[in-house]
Amino acid sequence: MSYALSSSLQAAVYQRLAADTDLAAIVGSDIFDAIPTGAVPAIYVALGPEKVRDASDGLGGGAWHEFTISVVTESAGFTQAKEAAGLVSDALVDADLTLTRGKLVGLRFRRAKAARVGTGDTRRIDLTFRARVSDE
To answer: How far apart are CA 77 and CA 67, in angstroms?
Structure first.
């Protein structure tokens, strides 16, 4: 197994989302790899947790990466968050991402969960994706 491609995959996912003009129309440049501290934007996208398991074969090292991307908003409803989440999904599913190391074999949507956070207006949608990478 190789975890060596994790950073390369994350960078490619981030670059893909940051370059999406439709997503930028909703969240601007507020795409993070960690929840921002201090003043939090009204809506943002955050790259989140990741689970990785071995997918090596006779041809070389590889791994399955299951990772979460969250859309969080302070809006009272889910509409804007769902629009942004749909754009995240559109940008990533079957994307032809270029990694700085290795190769992306495939990228698929696995599941999503939309929930109200606490008792206020905060809404959060967690989208889970599964990527297969090969260290060629």
So the answer is: 25
